[in-house]
Amino acid sequence: MKAVITAAGKHHSHLPLQTIADEAGQPLSILSHQLQALRDAGVDQVGIIINPKDLGLYEDAISEYGDFVECICQDRPQGYANAILCAEAFVGNQNFLLSVADHLFVGARGENNCFRQLIDASHALNCSVSAVQATSESEIRRFGTVGGERVEGKSDLVRIAQVIEKPTPTLAEQKLFISGLRAGHYYAYFGIHVLTPGIFAHLREAVDSSEASNRVTLTDAVNRMLAEEDFYALEVKGERFDLEAPFGLLHGQLAQALNGSAREQILADLLGLVAR
């Protein structure tokens, strides 16, 4: 399976390339953290969608990965849907994993990484699957949020009926309620999807029918796709950290550190810092 990482946004010339400490305390870039996790998950090749002005930065950042990674330029800033469409030739006629460069994904301790969990689910279901996370109603204005029915006997799997991009809490309460979630929480996009190649036709239709094509989102294409294909949401065992959110990088780094072998030392350091 191939993977696509979108990194053509205005903050992507620095956020994915920032250095953090991995679970062993070793420095690496956020992009390298994601690339290593994708390789561990069994991905064969990764295409990174970038702004052409950032080509030199990204070529330096991925030089150690050889043919495993290639850069794909989005020649004009025409929005997220267009960025994904730039990867159509790279993906070909196969399912692929889609990720975003400005998130840090931290799997739960003792579990497969988040990419592996989603890939395994897509293989088992033989269809598109989006990773989701139970998210407070105070935060869902930042994410696509799904509605649907839980799959019988599966506490972590929902068959998607619709997706609303960045809904208000009132709209989510009316249309996106899913049983089993605590009050005031909804399933919002995690930032990772496994998609069938059919998504490209729906993205193109959404772009062509929009007066503001740069505002077309993945959600627009997914809702078109739901009429033709099964589509599921998986609550992955892990957390996503939006690096563009206030202190997002700090929260992600702490979660990453606490996931490693130095957990007790990190906790002691934090308590000492608070005490001081």
List keywords for this structure.
two-stranded antiparallel ribbon; 276 residues; alpha/beta; globular; single chain; 32% helix; Spore Coat Polysaccharide Biosynthesis Protein SpsA, Chain A
How would you describe this structure to a colleague?
The protein is of the alpha/beta class and 276 residues long. It contains 10 helices and 13 strands. The strands form 3 sheets. It has a 5-stranded mixed barrel. Strands 2-3 form a two-stranded antiparallel ribbon. Helix 7 packs across helix 8 (218-225). It is globular.
| Order of H and E elements | EEEHEHEHHEEHEEEHEHHEEHH
Output mean pLDDT. 92
Q: Give the total of domains.
A: 1
- So what's the CATH class? Alpha Beta
What is this entry, summarized?
The protein is an alpha/beta fold and 276 residues long. The chain has helices at 30-40, 55-61, 80-85, 88-91, 114-125, 169-175, 199-208, 218-225, 248-258, 263-275, and strands spanning 2-7, 19-21, 27-29, 45-50, 69-73, 96-100, 103-107, 128-136, 144-150, 157-165, 185-195, 231-235, 238-242.
